[in-house]
Specification:
Elements lengths: L1 H17 L8 E5 L4 E4 L8 E5 L5 E8 L2 E5 L5 E5 L3 E2 L3 E4 L5 E4 L8 E5 L4 E8 L2 E6 L2 E6 L3 E2 L8
Antiparallel strand pairs: 1-4, 1-7, 2-3, 4-5, 5-6, 8-11, 8-14, 9-10, 11-12, 12-13
């Protein structure tokens, strides 16, 4: 009896700690799965509109519904995805029509370490002052926020 009571107390106090913290929308995330279906509504009974086959693609979460997230992709398309298909890993998608410079320092006058072609997806290590440290398969450099999709203009992390 005492053991059951002790277990009940442990579960009572442990439950809130395991609950997922609600995030204010919009926020940035990425697709964690190699295949992720976007739907017209928050349920598997809603028609699928897109099948994404690109893990790490950045997306913006614009609405939260229990196990579903309404997201916007880099093209502006919105729809619903299951939360387990998404990751908090921050990524960016290089934009434009020409390769974008990845600098050695967060300064346009610094040495260009690499160039990232339009459509390349990389991980965002940190962002501050209009620049983000961008990692593409282990090749790192600073890229201007205006050269990719995946971070807000004044955002720092």
């Amino acid at each position: 009896m005492l053991r059951a009571f002790a277990l009940a107390i442990i579960f009572l106090f442990a439950a809130p700690a395991g609950a997922q913290k609600e995030r204010e929308t919009p926020y940035w995330a990425s697709i964690s799965a190699g295949k992720a279906m976007m739907r017209t509504g928050p349920g598997k009974n809603y028609p699928a509109t897109w099948l994404y086959q690109r893990a790490d693609l950045p997306i913006k979460v614009v609405e939260v519904y229990p196990n579903w997230r309404r997201v916007q992709d880099p093209e502006g398309t919105t729809g619903w995805m299951l939360v387990h298909l998404l990751s908090d890993t921050r990524t960016g998608l290089v934009t434009g029509t020409e390769p974008r410079p990845m600098h050695a320092e967060p300064d346009a006058g610094s040495r260009i370490a690499y160039r990232a072609a339009p459509g390349v997806v990389g991980r965002l290590v940190s962002c501050d002052g209009g620049w983000c440290l961008f990692d593409v398969g282990g090749k790192r450099g600073y890229i201007q926020k205006s050269h990719f999709w995946g971070a807000d203009p004044g955002e720092s992390f």
